[in-house]
């Protein structure tokens, strides 16, 4: 990943993580999981990262990647959802966990896309 790609990926991932933190914190005491709101944020992040590395993704493919990742993190999200029922502390836990999950997912995808981009250039 070159410096320009890293800078763009950094902006995309941190923007999505910030949005996820807001959603997680804001929805902590609501009676349904925030995954329904996090999925579109993470899907948009995957599509934007694809553009940085010249990988064309349809919304369905990006959504599938994000859904798969969220399914893997279901246990964490369930625990976070239950902790979210505590006023103030729950908001902090819920928001920071949503941001951390989105951040790690974004860098994982960026790394994969970067490797794919590098393979295309070498061919």
Task: Describe the structure using short key phrases.
123 residues, mainly alpha, 81% helix
Which helices and strands occur, and which strands form pairs?
Blueprint: H1 3-26, H2 35-52, H3 59-72, H4 74-83, H5 89-122
Describe this protein's structure:
- The protein is mainly α and 123 residues long.
- The chain has one domain.
- It is 81% helix and 0% strand.
- It has helices spanning 3-26, 35-52, 59-72, 74-83, 89-122.
- The two termini are 17 Å apart.
Shape annotation: elongated
Biggest sheet character: none
How many β-strands, per DSSP?
0
SSE string, helices as H and strands as E: HHHHH
Could you tell me how far the N terminus lies from the C terminus, measured between alpha carbons in angstroms? 17 Å
How many structural domains?
A: 1
Rg (CA only): 15 Å
Average residue pLDDT? 80
- Segments where pLDDT lies below 50 for 5+ residues? none
Give the fraction of residues assigned to helices. Answer: over 70%
Strand residue percentage: under 5%
- Helix segment count? 5
Structural class: mainly alpha
Describe this structure in a few short sentences.
The chain is mainly α and 123 residues long.
